[in-house]
Amino acid sequence: MDRSDTYLLLWHIKGIGYKTIRKLEEYLDFQIENIWNINVSEIHKIPNISSKIKESIVQYRSLCYLDKIKEDLLKNNIQYITIDDDKYPKKLKNIYDPPYVIFISGNEKILDEFSIAMVGSRKATGYGIWCAKKISEELSNLGINIVSGLAIGIDYYSHVGALNGKANTIAVLGSSIDRPYPKENIKLMRKIIENKGAVISEYPLNSMPKPAYFPMRNRIISGIADGVLVVEAAQKSGALITVDYALEQGKNVFAIPGNINSFMSSGCNKIIKEGAKLVTSTEDIICEYDITLHKNLTDKNNLNIESDENIIISILKKYGSLHVDTILQHTNMNIKDILGILNILEIKGEVLEIGNKIYTINT
């Protein structure tokens, strides 16, 4: 029995996690595949492992159980890669506590491609939604993959924006792939897979979501990405856990600023003060990397990165101070997009709200 099969089998035994596998590796002189060959009495002599786990190893240490695991994965169209496999994502292998096994539905080849993780609040505002969709689509049109967590809110719209673009998107789950959470995003998960993206998890089949799983999956979100963008987050948002992991992993951290009176932007504004790079356009992200962008997608005029902002600025210059409803009448945009654009223009110092949703050029 090889090492890959050993990791897969152990990962499916209830009660066995990272710490137990490490202890087994140390006891077996880092030849963990030898667990198949040692006798029962020696298994019971392994130190610092509970008797219950030792009994489980004895019970499930069989080709029959391993074959059943592989059969179930095949039925669910789920692939797996173990940490000793050459296909294991290189960026993920370098993090602290890399998963011994990752399960994948979709395109496994994209896991080593250049990508940006986008995270944020589940209680996204219209401004946050607009930013997530806009930035993710523009990055995708530059050939940059988007990584997020398939949660409601910012995660959802980051995936949607990426799907509207030309690159791929990767969803990292806090449950097993056959038990996706939240259920309302199952259609989005299927769309990601159908569009040559990938859905990944470290959790074996039939693993329901647990509160502890989500902080753990955040290390994978940042681990497979080349940088992390926080779109919208309160000061105690779970998205900031991803930032902590990113900093530990030596990844770039970006944040979109928000209104200083907005509770939902307080986390972003805080990490910007602490050193995260302020982002108001995709160029703020791209300039941090020496990357070759997707062919024929590097022309800013073709991408219209800031065309929406320019449209509104032109309207205000032409007509003077306008109520947001009047701005709406002069564009083909929806009200949420307009409010999001105006919010960014306020942050840039290019427009001012002079009261009651009336905006003017900041001269």
Automatic annotation (TrEMBL):
Coiled coil: none annotated. This is DNA processing protein. It comes from Alkalithermobacter thermoalcaliphilus JW-YL-7 = DSM 7308. Belongs to the DprA/Smf family. NCBIfam families: dprA (TIGR00732). Residues 80-288 form the Smf/DprA SLOG domain. InterPro entries: DprA, DrpA_SLOG, RuvA_2-like. One of its GO terms (biological process) is DNA-mediated transformation. It comes from the Bacteria.
